[in-house]
Amino acid sequence: FDEGYQWFYEGRNGWWQYDDKTSGELEVRYKKGDKKFELLIAGFLYVVDLESMRQVRRNDHTRRRRIRRDLRSIPDIKGIAGLKYL
Ligand code: V3L
Predict the structure, then answer these.
(1) CB contact at 8 A, 69 and 5
(2) Of 27, 37, 50, 86, which has the fewest CB atoms closer than 10 Å, so is most exposed?
(3) Pocket test for ligand 1, best of 15, 16, 44, 63 (most atoms within 8 A of CB)
(4) 58-84 per-position pLDDT tens digit
(5) Residue 39, ligand 1, Cβ within 6 A
(6) What share of the chain is helix, strand, coil (3-state, %, to 5)?
């Protein structure tokens, strides 16, 4: 894992950090140069596309969110995987 980098998915008014396990998987795929792959997240299969930087629910393509790899210190982080920072 690169020092200081994290993975985020889009929320309504900011970004959520992926849980550590999923972040680790994303980072490994990213380093391998994978472009498109499936991930199981909280019981649902999502297709992650690292070229368009989106995650899309596999069985419902209307459920799409932007994703980003960025420094841990970006200001508009809401929390981790739905768990709000206080
Ligand atoms: N990791 C964890 N939960 C996720 C992820 C993910 N990568 N992707 C979707 N979900 P959809 P606000 C989010 C959750 O895209 O107030 C946040 O974590 C998603 O949770 O339609 O809008 C918050 O818990 C949603 O509950 O498949 O910023 C919640 O939304 C559910 O899967 C509200 O965040 C369906 O998402």
Answers:
(1) yes
(2) 86
(3) 16
(4) 999 999 999 999 988 787 899 999 999
(5) no
(6) 15, 50, 35
